[in-house]
Amino acid sequence: AKRKINADESTLDVAVLIRMMLRSLLLALATSRCAGDGIEDSKAADDAPLWRRVVDAVPKRLSTLTLTEQRDRMALWQRGIHALPENVDVGTYARHARLLPILRHRGGADCSEQGCDVGKVDYGALTRKLGPDFAEALRENEREHLKDCAKSCEKFYCGAAPSKPWQTRSISMGSVPPEDFAQEFAFPLDLIKVTQEPIVSKEEAARAIALAREENVDINEYTSGKYKLGGDWLAKMDKTRNWFNTQLEENIFPAIAASFPEVVTNVSTLRAHSVAMLKYNATHPRTDVHIDNGVLALTLALSPQTDYEGGGTFFEHLGEDALVEMDAGHATWRPGSVRHGGHRVSSGQRYIIGAFLLLEDRVEHVRRLKNRGAKLRQKGDLNGAIRHFEWALAINGKCATCLKDLSELRSSLADMEPQQRNEHLKEAEAFIRRSLDLLPSDSDALFNLGLVLSKKGDSKGALEAYEASAAVNADDVELLYNLAMKYEEANRKEEGIQAYRKALKAQPSFGKARCNLGAALAESGDLDGALVEFLEAVRYDPSSPTPWQNLAVLYHKQGVSTVQGLAQCASKEAAVEISRTASHALGEADNAWRKVMDLVDDQRTKQETVTRLAQVLQLRGRAVAIEDPAAALPHFLEATQLLPTEPSAWEALAKVYHIVGDEVNSKKAGARLGVLRSLAPQR
Q1: pLDDT tens digit string along 579-638?
Q2: Cα separation, 148 vs 634, whole angstroms
Q3: d(CA 211, CA 206)
Q4: What letter would DSSP give residue 112?
């Protein structure tokens, strides 16, 4: 939203202000690195009570400040400004800072300059309100939790150890609190932790990669949302898992416990529930933007940054340019519900270990209700799914993913129940807009809004939503594909072509995008460019009839255009040259239509394909006959076999027989032609 600027603010030189603030930020960063007195660096701070560490974490947020001073400090904090230039009035500086955007959307819809109030969950009150089914769902969550924790200890380290403070830097989690235990996490403190000193040595990181390669990690494939990566689960890799368990015991678990003392009561409660080694490269470059299936999540970098181009961890709320890049041995740990993704690797290889962590003494009711709702949806129990998502939302009213799940369900019901389509779509839009109120930079929510608006017939609104989503997540292939189609609907053809090209740059094997790009190029007159895309489409997706249909139509069109040029030929030599060109194109169309016939199932499409193939055969025969009439006969004969009741096929066959001197067969074909013509009025 645009903010109205007062008259006394309108003359502010924003460029100068930004430079001032950048200098102050760099000064503050340099000071913290030299002094080493951050909250996680100091032994004295570790021993301090929680309230003192919270106060020290945000400079000068002291109870002695006036209300105006508190508001000024909060305005600066929201914009990532934690230190001021010398001899600068805080109030004036904060007033100028308010012209800048809130960089990190701290605190969601209920945040003000006084701070954020997350609130504690009263499960007793919720149970009385929502009834016995809700109570049983909570008990099922507890049973699942105990099983998951016990299963974790079968493969991964579980044990007691003292916490070990580790030097880290902290990053804002964004506008939405953790889905579970937001109050315990002391949200909105900066909850994404990134190591400043390696948690694992470079030598040990290299050894982990070597062990994983011995266990064939390079030949396996791992699915992350709609993308595929190389990699495998550590539960299946004994040597690599044993290495990882040593790291958990010696450093990782103790460091995580020290980072989140409000949530992790002691190291013995930590459980590594799901752990995988992932391999990024040019063919498996990235993950989608997602949340992790645990109360905490870990990403451990194993490859030196010199081994690859690109890469890094992308936290969506920080923007495309704010990547968290880590060298071998460094790690990040954070609440599992922060939206993030593995950024694209353009060359080389990047290995990481990703882990979802549980806490033995804390049951994540929101996450487990959502997971069970998703399973019910897969089984077709949409009402049961809706109920579980609504329960999760009742526990945490700021659960953005709960709102997205409810929106997706209502959108699906709109397709399944056409008599209530408008009502379902209205609710779907309301849910997704509530989600975006909490997290405006959620690219998935913007994408889903585009889908809902498209279903409602609001093409303009859908296009705007897709464009906003692409501004956050610029190489999501499904998003770019939908965006391209909306550009075409809006008659913005060139922008549509560029969006298809971006989608294919992100995923060259995306057959639908290649088909649509080829069609768009053909419509613009670039038949050569269209041919390239159609050929690539059949190479990547040879079992789909659509690319073959597009290829057949293009070759068919080229053949027709070339055959029409025969009428202007002044010599036989010129006619022969044209006929050969036409014959080649029509031969390719012939092959493509036959491929379509093999791939399609429904009879209507198959019959339409037969008709098109017969047309190609007649044209091909006509082209071949210019140079060798006898060689044209098989094409005309097959056309009559494919379309035995089509008069034009028999007429052409009779003429060719006559040209080659076979009057007997010419008369037979002519007789069949006469019969068909006599029957024509009755058909």
Answers
A1: 899 899 999 999 999 999 999 988 889 999 999 999 999 989 888 888 888 898 999 999
A2: 69
A3: 9
A4: B
